[in-house]
Amino acid sequence: MLSFVLRRLASGVVLIIVISALAFAMLYANSENIARRILGQNATADLVARKTEELGLDRPLWEQYVGWLGNAVQGQFGRSWFTGELVTTGVTSRFAVTLSIVLGATILAAVVGVLLGVIAATRGGWVDRVVQVLSILGFAIPGFLVALGLVLLFSIELRWFKATGYIPITTSFGGWLTSVTLPVVALAVATIVVVAQQVRGSVTDALGRDYVRTLRSRGLSMRRVVAKHVLRNAGGPALAVLAVQFIGLLGGAVIVEQIFAIPGLGQLAVSSTVKADIPMVMGLVIATAVIVVIVNILIDLAQAALNPKVRLS
Amino acid sequence: MTEYAVAPVPVANSTRASLVRRLLRNPVAVIAIAYLLVVAVVAVIGRMISPYDPKTASLQLVLAKPSPEHLLGADSAGRDVLSRLLTATQISIAAALVALVVALLIGVIGGLLAGYYGKWFDSVSSWLTSIVMALPAIIVLLAARAALGPSIWVSMAIFGVLLSPAFFRLVYASVSAVRTELYVDAARVSGLSDLSIIGRHVLSVVRAPIIIQSAIILGIAIAVQSGLEFLGLGDLSVPSWGSMLNDGFAQIYRAPILMLWPSLAIGLTSMALVLVANIARDELERAAPRRTRRSRATPAAAYVPGPAPIAHPDDARAEKRLGEVLLNVRDLVVGYDRDDSGVTEVVRGVSLEIRRGEVHGLIGESGSGKTQTAFAVLGLLPAGGRVISGSIHFDGTELADASEQVYSRIRGRRIAYVPQEPMSNLDPSFTIGSQLVEPMRVTLGLSAKAAKARALDLLDRVGIPNPARTFAAYPHEVSGGMAQRVLIAGAVSCDPELLIADEPTTALDVTVQAEVLDLLRDLQEERNMGLLLVTHNFGVVADLCDRVSVMQSGRIVETGPVRTIFAQPEHEYTKSLLDAILEDAAPRGPLATGTEAGR
Questions:
Q1: Which end of chain A is more exposed for a tag (fewer CB within 10 A), N or C?
Q2: Backbone torsions φ then ψ of B428, nearest 5 degrees
Q3: Cβ <8 Å between B134 and A292
Q4: Which residue of A has its CA nearest to B378?
Q5: What pLDDT, in 10s, does the model give residues B310-365?
Q6: Number of A:B CB contacts under 8 A?
Q7: Residues contacting B463, CB < 8 A, separation 6+
Q8: What is the ipTM of this complex?
Q9: Minimal Cα–Cα distance from B598 to chain A, Å?
Q10: In angstroms, rounded to a whole number, what is the distance separating the alpha carbons of residues B428 and A212?
Q11: Do A276 and B274 touch (CB under 8 A)?
């Protein structure tokens, strides 16, 4: 168990280093372009050259990367080229906001998706057909259109929620709740249908297994067999889908935060991108990769708890 | 990128012409295709037919309402919305096509090469996948935008790279499969070059799935591209659906209608693409040769009462051993609902009688309806199956039309079941002990402690060497023979009066078979249970049974005491089954009869 976590952590670190190298190569390769974009199109060649030197962009790429990596392992990711804010401060101060939305959406999607999937698989009939149609729609309609629709309906038309803005949970719990409800729902909609579809499939599959018949032949009711045995066996594939979806939700948060004006990582990512604030973008890439690696390890552990065959070392 | 992982598309042969035809027969597909054609035409000629210059701003027209001159009104800069929409179509579609083409080129060529030549590729590709999986696509695209500037073409080319695994996996899987086919070896021997083999045998197989996948990828690319533009990360100087949406969103309080048109364009186009892909995939699946679910059962015409089975009277031995009638099945008909609302009958008028303390063999070849009869008695027919007529009378209770409530007092406690395949009949996620304890607690109301003690006793009784260890083990940790003993222990755990064993030894090693049969026999005698033994093996029947019923295509053809059936079989089918054993045994000499009977 411990060695399993350690091994996964080690491979996660290797993965993050590889990603950092690739990202660094892409972000820092065109040094002249970077300096020019900071200074504007009218800057003289001389100014550009000086800026390039000032930022240390005139050194060979690998040298720059080794320097970056050396600082990074000490937790130093540099400062924003524009605001002077520490990259670590910029990321950590917005981290909780994004995580609360993404986790909220993950939990909402898991609960509703599993319920819908189980009902569709066990009851069949119109519930099943509705889930089928919804899953096609959920797949086909881009998430940000769903979010825009929710804003129009609930904020502009019905005025149930504020359209934009974020109230920290420390300020007011109720305020926080009303400010994150729409973003979380908007983010979760597409994931709900994907999870429901997956759960429907794996529950249908588990229902057809021989042990279901055998357990029922011992006098257990269908309800009990579904609640205990079928769900446990269908849980593995559902978790795998949730892990993949989590990455999608992290990406979706970028757009949702923009729509609802929520000061999270996504908003920081967009503003840093527009300004070409390379150190900040680099920090965000690493932060995202770290989140993904950690979530994947957690999901693997949950898998092991669910499936005895995975419970190895 | 993985959030855009695409569902697998079935690979089917020789369906392309008919696939198009069947698509055109589906009204939803026709509407979606027609819409996509309109979008395609607008993408080509939109710039020419737009009434105004899409970039000309006019202060008088800022947020103008729709009017005869400006059908869809004007945006926040006073530009004609209709003209922008028509022009934007070209940019948006072209940008999505860039992503598609890049993904196709990398995915298909990479997949062909890797599938055809590379064995090392599996590890490399899984490694690459985990890198691509570690970041959401939009983060990668943001980073690219930060480094390379606001070109939607560059962004879409990079997105194409991120999407290429969808095609790569598809092509790679097909090529790997085809490469090992014999006809490819034959083609190579006959002198065809690798290239023409790939062209002829591989591309023809994956063409339809690639087209379907392309539709889905195109939809995803449109969505992501509009998303980027919506975030204001695109090139604001060119009109596109996403940038129009961005402008509309900025005016959400003043003119939310501005968001409607680009939203419709994006939403409808994505939906049309996904719908066409989905329908095409369903059609492909339907065209692929399906294994019919009940292929084992002989499809038969509707039930007409057949000739009555040849019934031999009980001999003295059977008379002496047997008690009162426990299970009485009369004229049982079991059928499965077909798609065309007809019914396929798999059991056609079976009558059976099992007495207390009797071992009754139900013998017949695969598909004769033995197992279906057993499931019908248990009330556990697979989905779609049901008792159509006849009666199942169990010790005073009618089961043929019994509710779940009635069955809940019968199953486990009075009728129990030993399955054929031991491994698949244990839930892999729970320990063997918990699977034994749970039914005893539910049906007998035992405490956890009492149930555990009883389970350990039972495991000991069925000959498990270390009951405590097996109790704590998971099913994958024990052998097939052990698992079958566990299942037998579970079946008798609630003291049933009738045990239904469905080919209980078929899946086991020969050496284990005899032990398991002995165990069944001992338990049956010890508890004076009725035992319905479903089998296709006359050796087992001779060894264990008091009476036997011979089943053929859903009917019982002959029934009687086991000695009479062996000594004087009357029905042709019984004779041929018996002859089959003898023919089987003959070349092995006299010893073979012994092993046959001992099985």
A1: C
A2: -65, -15
A3: yes
A4: A217
A5: 877 777 666 666 678 889 999 999 998 887 778 888 888 888 889 888 999 999 88
A6: 228
A7: B485, B515, B519
A8: 0.85
A9: 28
A10: 11
A11: no
